[in-house]
Amino acid sequence: MYLVPQSGILSLSETTVFSSTGMHWVHGLCGRLRQGVNQVTQQNGHLQLSVQFDKCNACGKCLDVCCYDARSIIGRDYTVSDLKKFIATDMEYYKIPDEEGECGGITLTGGEPMAQFSFIDFFLNEIKDIHICMETSGFAPTWQYERLLGRVHLFLFDYKVTDPLKHKRLCGVDNQQILTNLEFLCSHHADMILRLPLISGLNDDDEHFEAVAKLLSKYANIRRAEIMAYHNMGVNKADQIGLSDHKEIQRYNGNSASEEQKQEWVRRFKEKGAERIRIS
Known about the structure:
The chain is α/β, with parallel strands linked by helices. Residues 1-36 have low confidence and may be disordered. Strand 6, helix 6 (142-148) and strand 7 (154-158) form a beta-alpha-beta unit. The radius of gyration is 22 Å and the shape is globular. The protein has a 6-stranded parallel beta sheet. A two-stranded antiparallel ribbon has the order 1-4. The protein has a two-stranded antiparallel sheet with strand order 2-3. The protein contains 12 helices and 10 strands. The two termini are 19 Å apart. The relative contact order is 0.10. It is 37% helix and 19% strand.
């Protein structure tokens, strides 16, 4: 299950086309139109409704009048009580072991779940007798990870870039805090899978591969490293929520990694001495 963001995101299908009659009907009912959020535009000879996402507050009024159901609000707000009720319906499924003999549980994910630490802290106090996994970038204060020890049973820890300058250029911050947290969790023997988002020509350099091999050799608590090969399946979703022109989306929009590329990465890792490596 997912720990959703606190605010919704408006999703708009890029292929939605409205007739002029239908468009006038929408125009007359949607109050946000008068504020310049929704606008009638013409593309390829057809009228359609476009959204100025920088002004949209995801109020959802346009959903009420969309005659094609082409829009949706992604995500919703949950209280801890809401989540407990939701989890209770699937408790029997969590008892079924996977291929490694482990039973199921809850994965806290995002975005970055640590961005909602107060909620998670309270939530974990309320949830008992269930395996808790967390996906994290590692970018949060160390004391917060300290509070999670013993309550999060498995960390899926991102390790994106080794060089701090490259990390800052690609991710917006250097990796000092991330490395500090990685070392902290490992020194406390936290169960961990190291996750490696890889983009050909961007962060698949020898320095990075050597650093991953050294981490796997140094810390026995890291079960393995998993290659998270780049794919472009998120490009269409970015367009739907108004981020297709964002500089981070435009920075790299190549083809998905081929199977040959993935196997080559595995070969290179093993060449560096990283045996506990697999493709996710």
